[in-house]
Amino acid sequence: MAKKKSRTPAEEYLLLPTPPSTLGIVDTHTHVASTFENYRQRYKEGQHATVYEFIRAMYANRQVEAIVDVWCEAPVQKIWKEFADSALKPEDRESIWGGLEYWFVMGVHPHDAKLYTDEVEKDIVEAMSHPRCVGWGEMGLDYHYDNSPREIQQNVFTRQLRQAVKLAKPLTIHTREANEDTERILKEEVPKDHRIHIHCFTDAPEFAKRLLDHFPNLYIGITGVITYATNVDTSTVIREMSTAEPDKPLRIVLETDAPYMVPANLYDSLPEIKGKQLPICHTAMVPWTAAFISGIAGEKWDVGRVMLEARENARKMYGV
Description:
Layout (H helix, E strand, L loop, with lengths): L24 E6 L1 H11 L8 H9 L4 E8 L8 H6 L4 H6 L5 E6 L11 H11 L4 E10 L7 H17 L4 E6 L2 H11 L6 E3 L6 H10 L3 E5 L10 H12 L7 E3 L31 H12 L5 H16 L2
Helix pairs in contact: 6-7, 7-8, 8-9, 10-11
């Protein structure tokens, strides 16, 4: 019987073709540890034995300026401190991380809300004082999967927001099919001028507008999911934003949510792997998301403008 052909492209294709922009990249939401874990699972004979080797190889000459790594599990993964400590010194960021600026946020994802305890909260509060920590999250509500009971999700979300606001930490928010409760809790618990990143937005455009109108320092996170034919809401948010204020910067930040959501338009640049799919997303793919955004935002936006505006917004949001 003939061996079934693999639909996973050769590892070399993870290095990617020439991007649509060579401006500096800031990925405001990525999961470094799980991206490397997925890489090792899919490429068991892969040439990169450590997460740091993987990062240096993937991002070499790709103008990756900074990443915001997201730790959102309960209990807290202790390896976060190894990553963060390895980025304390400029010389270590150069030798270990390939010159990029490593930052992180920490919180508990709504999937794990049922596992949130005083001990977990204590660990997160401790992490907030680390020099490379730039926010609390991702946290929020997910009514699509309901991996934790909704009442517990709401209670844990509220509890985390109160801690983060008390510490004046920027907020990384996960919300999915929970518009009404997310909006209510944010407006009840968070000062209007607080910095908020609504991560990987895929919900109703009207919901986005209400949040943007109420919170002047809120940014909509855009991932590769905007390129998917199954998702029209995120594109609508961009069109409405650019039409309403064509001379003002888009209030977005760019992100990958790696290892998930490879931008679909990337495959236009990789005709040689037609019929196959890259098994992981990573930060160097951000320019393809920016290119797609420029195509729907209107004639005043090209990929360069999208990249520059998102880069400045990342600075305003997280100070990175």
